[in-house]
Amino acid sequence: MRDSGADLPGTADRDRKTAMKIRSLAAVTAVAVVVLIALIVRYMPSSKHMSSEEYFGLSGADDVAVIVNGVKGELCGRMIDSASFIPYETVHTRINPSVYYDEPASELIVTLPEEKRVYPLRDGRALDGRAVLLDGELYIAADYLVEIMGVDLHLYEEPMRQVVRLNGIYRTCEFTKDAPVRRLAGIKSPIIRDMEKGDRAYVLDLDAEGNPLPEKVEGWVYVATYNGYTGYVRENAVEERETEELSLPDPFGEWTACGEAPDGKINMVFHQTDSAASNRALLKSVKDVTGVNVIAPTWFYLNSTDGEVRSVADAEYVKEAHGKGFDVWAVLNDFDGALGSSSETAAVLQSYDARTKVIDSVVKTVLKVGADGINVDIELVRKNSADAFLEFLRELSVECRNAGLVLSVDTYVPAYTGYLNRTEQARVVDYIVTMCYDEHTSGSEKAGPVASVGFVEEGIRKTLTEVPPEKLIAAIPFYSRLWKTGEGQENGTWAYGMSKAKARAKELGIELAWDESSGQYYGEKEEGDYLWQIWVEDRKSLEEKMKLIRAADCAGAAEWKLGMEQPSVWQMIEEYLA
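^ that's the sequence the OP posted. Answer follows.
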């Protein structure tokens, strides 16, 4: 008889199999749960909010965040006597460069189109509290900016933030649904602002024409809310609207032309004059010249670090030039006088008294002799004096505009002087003369052309990224360099005008052939341990450069220098500027 408690045959196996199935199912379920949780963690948007204080980087009770055109600056402003003050560096570099702190003189200088205002700082404050020196940092009253420029200001609380908008064209978007703005482009980035359907914001990752900017991230839109928050929103949460233009009038007017330039394209030739004798040779020097409407004699030289200027300006020269149909733009340089180093040039530019002395002297003399403009050829400007150089140009611009004198400034190509802020120069002067030469100089380690066609093309192209074509004059050379180089030998280089360069090559037995890569005639000859090389500027090489100037629709051309050309070049240059 069977035991009633005994298992039926196969029951134990079935139970074990069932248990195994249950454990397997549990394991699969656990894995699925883990995977599901991982997917949720990975793909579910974060709901974490970043505090406004953390986002704006405010730590002190009187700190004020400063947002210019939707971009928050690293420096905080201050609330002083219940008024908002913006750091000077932010004002000068991002809002209005015409607000300039002359630290050695302890003066705030505000250069307007037709006047210069100087505010001495006394006991750390400027007149009527326009500026305050606090803890070693200078701050500018936000309300003062409205007095001197077209600008839109809004001060928000909780937290304190000063929102600044400058005149310009802005792209806007509208939120089509409630959506968060995140600090970075990603669903896990913290939320900095919750927006509601119908809210508007500025689009920061497209330019005014709708072209993507570096900030553009696929699937996201980089926006700035009207009240100062900047971050990313999903593309499907907004729709782009029309552009919006802010055009507030400048209380003191625009930076208009300083003087009246000749009609049509400018054709300016530099005339190196350093004495009364060279002035008297004008008519002889220009007897074969045609098509030129501006002559630029090198008349003024910085002669001391306190602003003394040596002058060879000549009223009779101006009378003769006008008789030939030339306007006269007198040149001021910093290398033909007693000065000759970047440190000495910096000393002049960084001194308010020296700048004022130079400007007063040059402007008064130019007016006295009846010249039509001033050309600034200050070349020994390094990074440490670039900002002071811009201030010098602004201050000179005011005096030229009030006197009706055309103001132009010479700069080397951006590859050599990228720090010179040509955008600001172009704002306050009439013309930027880009010197598209000195690709290789007497100080170069290797032999090479003075101005290959590629060098000129690149110089014009890069300058046009900062300067509008109607303000760009491209300067080309009338000279070439002959090189003598050799391993372990004493090398040499000589500059020659057009005719002399070809004659010298012939004397040395150097055969010249057209070189497409440089756009010049090139020749070389070995002589013992030496190698002679020359890249020749002539009518054909200059025509290649004039093609570039015409294609870029530049304001004109300039040539260095009178007396080094072949007469045949003048008609060609004139034709390309017609």
